[in-house]
Amino acid sequence: MRLFRAGVVLVLCASLLNGCGFTLRGTEQAAMPIDELAISYPGGRYPLAEVLRDALIANGVTVPAVPGDALELRLSPERLERRALTLNNRGGAGQYALTLQIDASVFLSGQLLDGPETVEVTGSFYEDTANISGSNNGVEQTLNDMRQDMADFIIRRLREITL
Questions:
Q1: Are 123 and 145 within 8 A, CB to CB?
Q2: Were 95 and a residue from 4, 80, 85, 153 both cysteine, which residue would form a disulfide, CB within 3.0 to 4.6 Å?
Q3: If you average pLDDT over residues 58-74, what whole number do you get?
Q4: How does DSSP classify residue 60?
Q5: Which of 37-41, 125-129, 146-150, 157-161 is predicted with the least confidence, judged by mean pLDDT?
Q6: What share of the chain is helix, strand, coil (3-state, %, to 5)?
Q7: How far apart (Å, rounded) are the C-alpha atoms in residues 141 and 124?
Q8: Omega before residue 116 within 30° of 0, cis
């Protein structure tokens, strides 16, 4: 019974501390120093731009369709490297490592403010030669996860920009 009471008191104390706004250092995210940021990227399909746009909007940043006088994030074409990590029993690659890279720069009224910085993320996936469509879905899911990680990194870097 005593142990139960101690547990209840501990939970209540933790709830009170959390309720009054107490957080441990490093666990609270800093506010974005920018209100508006345009994203420029090479023509055609660019999945990272969609993920990044969603992340910026979730952080309270307006993303205009046309740069104008707003801050502008310029992204280079994605570079994808794929290399074999392990071999399967048929002598083909069983597991692959993927490396996705872009160069990112921040401009203000056409003038370089920050960058260019190369952003790189890695991931891996298993290829099942008996299920090619499943393997292709695995590659796409891995790339989607990598793009989300890349967008999160870019958001963290944008928080560090001083205007």
A1: yes
A2: 85
A3: 85
A4: T
A5: 125-129
A6: 35, 30, 35
A7: 10
A8: yes
Q: What does the block give as tokens for 95?
A: 């597991």
Give the whole-angstrom CA distance, residue 28 versus residue 6.
28
Q: Residue 70: is its pLDDT beyond 70?
A: yes
Q: Are 104 and 117 contacting, i.e. CB atoms less than 8 angstroms apart?
A: yes
What is the spatial distance between Cα 26 and Cα 83, in angstroms, rounded to a whole number?
35
C-alpha 114, offset from chain centre: 19
Question: Which domains does the chain possess?
Answer: 31-159 (3.30.160.150)
Q: Are 39 and 53 in contact (CB under 8 A)?
A: yes
56, 73, 59: which is closest to 30 by C-alpha?
59
Predicted pLDDT at 83: 86
Please write the tens of the pLDDT for every residue from 103-133. Answer: 999 998 888 888 799 999 999 887 766 555 5
Task: Report CA torsion sign: 28, 25, 152, 122.
Answer: negative
